[in-house]
Amino acid sequence: MRPSALTATVGALSLAVLVIAPATAHATAPVPLADAVAALPVAAESREGYDRSLFPHWIDEDGDGCNTRMEVLIAEATVAPEADERCRLTGGEWLSYYDDRVHTEARGLDIDHMVPLAEAWDSGASEWTTARRRDYANDLGEEVALVAVTARENRAKADKDPAQWLPPSEAALCRYVTEWTTVKTRWSLTVDQAEADTLTAAAAECPDSVVDTEPAA
């Protein structure tokens, strides 16, 4: 091939790459919260057959000695704790955004599944394999899926959806509803009608909130 022809071919290929790359750079784009809520499929829920043991956790996925609970505590600390060779934490500071409370001891915190395991079961996880439920229960790929919060608030929430429970801190509303919707979207989970109505009403109060997540593998 002559130099001029080669140059033209390379230039054409480069142009093709420039045209194609932006379209494939991101699997998803941020979506306004109201639109993300509207996109959630509405379906009746059933807890038949649910058992918490069907969602194995906490695991040490990367084999570094810290299980999922510890990984979340380390990642969410506002003041970093120290971890020994067995991943026991000392020091550190955390802010539980559900109740706007600061903690200086990890034992005062629970790691909340943003969408509780039982709620996930009701919303589609009953059809998953145990391996996929394990991935859900230990989802470190989406930073809002697991959150360190005051143990009392986590236990008050229990298995409730937003139609039944919302954080006591009014300032937490938009964040909480956005994170709930993010997890439901990421894992292709359904919502029941009361849940959908509550999310829709809350989203109207949060016009600047967006859902930005990748589908779970």
Task: Give an account of the 3D structure.
This protein has eight helices and eight strands. It is an alpha+beta fold and 217 residues long. It has one domain. The strands form four sheets. It has a two-stranded antiparallel sheet. A two-stranded antiparallel sheet has the order 2-3. Helix 2 packs across helix 7 and helix 2 (33-39) packs antiparallel against helix 8. It starts with a helix and ends in a 6-residue tail after the last strand. The model is unreliable at 1-26 (pLDDT under 50). Keywords: Endonuclease, Hydrolase, Nuclease, Signal. It comes from Nocardiopsis codii.
Summary tags:
217 residues, disordered N terminus, two-stranded antiparallel sheet, alpha+beta, 8 strands, signal, two-stranded antiparallel ribbon, 8 helices
With strands numbered from the N-terminus, the spatial order across the biggest sheet is 1-8
Please give the largest β-sheet.
2 strands, antiparallel
Give the amount of beta strand, in percent: 5-15%
Low-confidence stretches: 1-26
Coarse shape: globular
**What does the oligomeric state look like here?**
single chain
Helix and strand succession?
A: HEHHEEEEEHHEHHHE
Mean pLDDT: 89
Q: What class do helices, strands and sheet pairing give?
A: alpha+beta
Give me the count of strands: 8
Over the alpha carbons, how many angstroms does the gyration radius reach? Answer: 21 Å
Number of domains: 1
Q: Percentage of helical residues?
A: 25-40%
Pfam family, one: GmrSD_C
Keywords: Endonuclease, Hydrolase, Nuclease, Signal
Protein name: HNH endonuclease family protein
GO molecular function, one term: endonuclease activity
